[in-house]
Amino acid sequence: MPCKEEAHSRLHCHRGLRELPPEPPKRDHWESSALLGSQIRARQYLSTKEEAAVKIQAWWRGTLVRRTLLVAALQAWVIQAWWRELLWRQMQKLQHILLKVYVIQEQAAVRLQSCVRMCRCHRRYRQVRSTLCALQAPRCSLPLQVGDGPQEQPAGAVKGLEFHVEILSI
């Protein structure tokens, strides 16, 4: 009949579990020290392998983190570029509106100045006309005398009214 340990180890192997290593047989002092040295070397070898594996894993995790940060930075850059473009377009619209308002105000000022100059011209014209009518009115009411016929005007005399109109443009 098999012993309990064999049945237990078979059960573990059957389940796919790792089998426990057998206990080393009892040895004398010299054999055990040689065995201990080889175990120390084996552990050192495993520890250097583990250190290398840890370094490789740390490098890989760092690479993944840098890749993730790069993707996030690129996405932030795209959003910032979109936002700057949006602000630039809004600024362009505002400048366009302000330019339209400025042009409208300038045109209104030019029209107003034109109307004021026209009113001054009309006022001056009416003033000169009323003065001339006042000067001519008494002559018409007087009876004609012999020397009152049409008279010739000197060669350099100005006929009619003269108006000096200055057109200022901006």
Offer a concise description of the structure.
The chain has 170 residues and is mostly helical. The chain has helices spanning 4-15, 29-141. It has one domain (4-136).
User: How much helix, percentage-wise, in residues?
Assistant: over 70%
Order of helices and strands: HH
Characterize the largest beta sheet: strand count, sense, and whether it forms a barrel. none
Low-confidence stretches: none
Shape, per Cα inertia axes: rod-shaped
Oligomer class: single chain
Give structural notes.
By secondary structure, the protein is an all-alpha fold. It has one domain. It is 74% helix and 0% strand. The N and C termini lie far apart (122 Å). The model has no long low-confidence stretch (mean pLDDT 78).
Please describe the structure with a list of short key phrases separated by commas or semicolons:
0% strand; IQCF; calmodulin binding; mainly alpha; 170 residues; rod-shaped; 74% helix; IQ domain-containing protein F3; IQ_motif_EF-hand-BS
